[in-house]
Amino acid sequence: MMSNIPDVKLGIIAVSRDCFPLTVSQGRCKSVVEECRKAGLDVFSAPTIAENERDAVRAVEEVREARCNALVVFLGNFGPETPETIIAKMFDGPVMYVAAAEESGDNLINGRGDAYCGMLNCSYNLALRKIAAYIPEYPVGDAVDVARMIAEFVPVARAIIGLRNLKIITFGPRPQDFFACNAPIKGLYDIGVEIEENSELDLLVAYRAHKDDERIAEVVRDMTAELGDGNAYPDLLPRMAQFELTLLDWAEEHRGSREYVVFADKCWPAFPKEFGFEPCYVNSRLASRGIPVACEVDIYGALSEYIGTCITASPVTLLDINNTVPKDMYESEINGRYDYKLSDTFMGFHCGNTPFCRLAGGGIKYQLIQNRTLENGGTPDFTRGTLEGDIAPGEITFFRLQGNADTSLQAYVAEGEILPVATRSFGGIGIFAIHEMGRFYRHVLIQKHYPHHGAVAFGHVGRALWAVLSYLGVKDISFNQPKTMLYSDECPF
């Protein structure tokens, strides 16, 4: 159950320019609300139609009293530029602007609204006031069209509300030689996210304090039920249950003024020996509840995961952009069956943090790489605890919001899929296919100095991600450009 993301309560305020009949905007807004309700969207319509600044103040008070946390400003006609834009300034939440199309060729005298024109002046006024707002790709339509646009606004609004009420809790510095996970935190403050940084020792002390917690047995039962045949190490579950309770209690005790919490934790090299297990399975369980736990203290990875969780209202994961697909494997299992070049494919991998519900089949195993290093390749003990298996095939969106050395923010978004091809490897892993991935890898991921971690949303949600990132003011948003569209640094020959 997604218990760590906002519920969106929509309000709508209709605006009307006083030289147009108020009834035009009023009637069109009523039709939009009716279409929203047919589509299952509960929208509170402010009784006041805003024609002037006093109306705007009154309408905002009405939606606040209705406890709305996201708002649609509807231009039923041309709209009054100042009142309609200060609504967004006064309202403490994400705001969408949308305009009414004309309804009938037989009603273009007294029934014409000119909102097509009014949206231009509205957007200009928003820019003058430096007010962020969501404006759909084509923001003009009839009641059915507008209701559809409002439905598309909901996941965007959910992400914006979540970020404004989010705290990222970290444990430990980034691992040695993992500069890729280092990023300045100022960018977090710029978009309204809070951060609390702690040491691994703080976490270890809290973990030990949960020894013999009476709730452990219940968590173990839940883990056992989830894992089924994948429960290879039943003796390990009490340790991991103790850790899960430690993180959940820390979230409750440290959320402070914020409603939502995610984690970015150090998970190696000291963690497994001192705690007695790998934290991956626990991380996966929290992610399945809407509380992403990013590996290797990847703060912007945790932030990206949370954005994806809000947009999809379902579990996401964080993976390494890890290794190429061998040519022989491509030829025998992909070429001719799927419309992808070899360079369009790669394997996304992490030790075992992907939620169980996102695996084609999985179970608790041990971290092979750390077992070699920390246990000399012997019988695994404290390197157990990864959740491993091939990730289920289907549509995905690979994305990341990243803070640069100069504290600016940049991002990428690429839609693709996980192929139904066995990886024959270890970890939580899948064969990813993204059109023109080879060029995207070189001219975005390498050229713009992105780290190796990418967030994965299960579904094509690039449009919503793009809207959220734009709303946050991110200017540099990259995507996997088609071969007919050169990157700025790409050789044309």
Write the layout of secondary structure elements.
Layout: E1 10-15, H1 22-38, E2 43-45, H2 53-65, E3 70-75, H3 81-90, E4 95-100, H4 115-128, E5 140-141, H5 143-164, E6 166-171, H6 186-190, E7 194-198, H7 200-209, H8 216-227, H9 237-254, E8 260-265, H10 270-275, H11 280-288, E9 293-294, H12 299-312, E10 317-323, H13 327-333, E11 345-350, E12 363-366, H14 368-374, E13 384-390, E14 394-403, E15 409-418, E16 428-433, H15 437-446, E17 453-457, H16 462-471, E18 476-479
Parallel strand pairs: 1-2, 1-3, 3-4, 4-5, 6-7, 6-8, 8-9, 13-16, 15-18
Antiparallel strand pairs: 10-11, 10-17, 11-16, 12-13, 14-15, 14-17, 15-16
Helix pairs in contact: 1-5, 2-3, 3-4, 5-12, 5-16, 7-9, 8-9, 9-11
Domain L-fucose isomerase C-terminal: 349-475
GO molecular function: L-fucose isomerase activity
GO biological process, one term: fucose metabolic process
Short précis:
Helix content is 37%, strand content 20%. By secondary structure, the chain is an alpha/beta fold. The relative contact order is 0.10.
